[in-house]
Specification:
The chain is mainly alpha-helical. The protein has helices spanning 2-11, 13-46, 48-51, 64-103.
Length: 104
């Protein structure tokens, strides 16, 4: 019985759309974050003097501190973007899959 349900889910066009969209979106967000992290590491490796420069004369806060905080904030924002899309579009597709499978 369960094998029949699983097969109907896999055959659902909504399910295939859901999987494709979710994978594509997750890859895009992962690549964005990877580029940001690698860029920061490369900046640490090849531009430590620039990162170590104070923001203003006499300040103990260097350029690297707000840049590092920005990376952390960007990761929270990207997580929020994923959650927002998951709660809207992906949940809608998930409900469509369930409705389609239960109807047949």
């Amino acid at each position: 019985m369960n094998d029949n349900i699983y097969q109907r889910i896999e055959d659902s066009t909504y399910f295939r759309e859901l999987v494709a969209k979710r994978q594509r979106f997750a890859w895009i967000l992962s690549i964005i974050m990877l580029v940001i992290y690698i860029g920061f590491i490369l900046l640490i490796a090849f531009g430590p003097d620039w990162l170590g420069t104070p923001i203003s004369p006499g300040s103990s806060v260097t350029r690297g501190i707000p840049l590092g905080m920005g990376i952390i904030i960007i990761s929270f924002i990207l997580t929020g973007v994923y959650v927002w899309r998951a709660n809207s579009e992906f949940d809608r597709l998930n409900k469509a899959v369930l409705h389609e499978v239960q109807a047949s």
